[in-house]
Backbone:
């Protein structure tokens, strides 16, 4: 479906100005790490699914297409037209109206329209972002939605809209606290007020684990305008969403997010299906640091097209999983010309082997060439 010679993906022209998807990312669609037996992401998914299944029967969806209309990813969730998450610097577009989903919430209204009341959706999600040990342009999320019916409320003795929303909120919090205990054991937890355009009220759950507060998930009562739009009148429900890598890294002590993608047996043979174990790092190979300095096309106070995420993408496309981190280490404005200079430090390191100097020099040379060609910058 991804064709390098014509630079297309499923018939979408990736060379078009409406698209910012690279073959590097396109070629990963369909890998479905969350479906690989014994994979830590699959284990977390299974534990969470079993938990909700044992409470009430939830419909399980884990193979929904990550290519979705912007209407599903943004509009139907009441995400405003000027929201940053819609920008080309943050989201992968195939064309103006089609994106790689940035969250599993993209399927909420589709499944509600199909008539489902209780469902769990797991899948790969895509975001253009920085590069370090916990950020990767592809990660995995799990979404849970439960709508309440008149019968539910009758059984619970709730009549007014206010009582009903209170009940939904309590059910949501109880359920998620139980889920967190299932994963983390008897930990301290706290609820923090949050904001999402598609839930009202909204919350985040934090747990105290390994001496720090860790944000586990976002959730809330499904916005009443969404409920209305899917033809459910004013029957409330709840929704939550969580990132599987973040949980797996903490629970299995996995130090770098790239490891989820490795083919190395020294990683995979450590895991058994459904079991949370402590990962034993097999080796840390030496890092290699390279700096790149350039004048961006930014001028102080002027409109610019340079975005750091574009720089990160260039490095990813060249070095793939051999890049561990990219940091902006220096930025200054020339006092006379007003031009802005950036210096990025790139850390190259493989998870699986030692890299040669020759190999790294070649990558760095390619990064320099591609930066000139794609970013409109001038090397210093
Ligand atoms: N989609 C939100 C995110 O990606 C998480 C979320 C899901 C929040 C459902 C509320 C309800 O951050």
Residues:
């Amino acid at each position: 479906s991804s064709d390098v010679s014509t630079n297309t993906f499923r018939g979408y022209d990736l060379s078009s100005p409406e698209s910012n998807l690279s073959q590097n990312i396109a070629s990963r669609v369909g890998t479905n790490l969350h479906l690989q037996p014994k994979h830590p992401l699959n284990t977390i998914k299974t534990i969470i699914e079993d938990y909700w299944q044992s409470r009430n029967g939830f419909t399980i969806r884990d193979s929904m297409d990550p290519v979705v209309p912007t209407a599903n990813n943004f509009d139907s969730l009441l995400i405003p037209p000027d929201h940053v998450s819609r920008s080309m610097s943050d989201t992968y577009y195939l064309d103006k109206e089609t994106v790689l989903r940035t969250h599993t919430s993209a399927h909420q209204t589709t499944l509600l329209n199909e008539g489902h009341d209780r469902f769990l959706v797991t899948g790969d999600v895509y975001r253009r972002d920085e590069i370090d040990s916990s950020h990767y342009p592809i990660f995995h999320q799990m979404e849970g939605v439960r709508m309440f019916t008149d019968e539910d409320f009758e059984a619970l003795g709730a009549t007014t809209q206010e009582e009903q929303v209170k009940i939904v909120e309590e059910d949501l919090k109880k359920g998620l606290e139980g889920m967190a205990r299932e994963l983390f054991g008897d930990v301290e937890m706290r609820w923090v007020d949050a904001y999402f355009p598609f839930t009202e009220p909204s919350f985040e759950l934090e747990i105290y684990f390994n001496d720090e507060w860790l944000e586990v998930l976002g959730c809330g009562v499904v916005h009443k305008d969404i409920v209305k739009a899917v033809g459910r009148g004013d029957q409330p429900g709840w929704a939550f969403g969580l990132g599987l890598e973040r949980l797996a890294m903490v629970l299995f002590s996995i130090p770098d997010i790239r490891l989820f993608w490795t083919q190395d047996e020294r990683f995979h043979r450590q895991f058994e299906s459904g079991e949370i174990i402590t990962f034993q790092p097999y080796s840390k190979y030496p890092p290699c640091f390279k700096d790149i300095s350039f004048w961006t096309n930014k001028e102080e106070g002027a409109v610019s097209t340079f975005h750091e995420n574009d720089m990160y993408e260039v490095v990813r496309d060249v070095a793939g999983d051999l890049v561990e981190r990219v940091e902006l280490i220096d930025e200054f404005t020339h006092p006379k010309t007003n031009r802005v200079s950036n210096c990025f430090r790139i850390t190259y390191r493989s998870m699986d082997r030692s890299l040669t100097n020759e190999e790294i020099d070649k990558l760095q040379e390619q990064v320099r060439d591609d930066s000139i060609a794609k970013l409109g910058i001038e090397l210093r």
About this structure: The chain has a mean pLDDT of 95.
